[in-house]
Amino acid sequence: MAQTLLSRFRSKDDLFRYLTQHGKIPHLLLPRAIAGIFLPSIGGTTLAFMKDILKDEKRTLRVNEVVHLEVPLYPEISVKNLYEDALADPEVAKYLPTQEQMGGRLPERTFFFGVLGTLKRHYLTEIIKEAHDRRFKVPEDSQSKDAILISDTWLEELTKHPYYSSKFVVSNIL
Fold it and tell me: Could you state, in order of their start, the residue ranges of all structural domains in the chain?
């Protein structure tokens, strides 16, 4: 068995590419689906994590199954703050690498929130909603000088057209 794998995949990169490719193989007469699993980038995926996937100790999601939610870049909604809670959930822990597998590092943000958004969508949307509420809700009993009062006309004008932040790469818009 090990010899078969060694002859087919000569490096971690070969195995990673095979596991993450998705779609169909065009040069075959009968198209075959190929692995297409959702993993962190090649730099964020360790050989130890891939070995556990192949031994069925860790589970994977297919790329087309992953739910990508827009997770704001708030300190309270970070991989660092949510990772331990995610590993405490047995269902989610099956899909995430341990810190030992990651060499003490945390999983990449896109991978972590892709897994969490797919398996625990309601939980993640509640966390995002609570963070938004804490940041943007003005307490009813205080008319703070830091709050911005806005007329209905301006609110309509400001929300009429989509706005793309300059923090996003232009290629994301196209």
Answer: 2-135
Q: Are 85 and 12 within 8 A, CB to CB?
A: no
Q: Which two tokens stand for residue 102?
A: 């990651």
Q: Which tens digit of pLDDT belongs to each residue from 13-39?
A: 887 887 887 554 555 444 444 568 899
What does the alpha-carbon distance between residue 47 and residue 39 come to, in Å, rounded to a whole number? 12
pLDDT band per the 50, 70, 90 thresholds, residue 114? very high
Can you spell out the DSSP letters for 111-131? HHHHHHHHHSHHHHHHHHHHH
- Provide the token pair at 127: 């966390």
CA–CA separation, 47 and 41 (whole Å): 12
Burial annotation 110-141 (CB, 10 A radius, 16+ → b, else e): bbbbbbbbbbbeebbeebbeebeeeeeeeeee
How far, in Å, CA of 44 to CA of 86, rounded?
18
pLDDT tens for 120-142 read 999 999 999 999 888 877 666 65
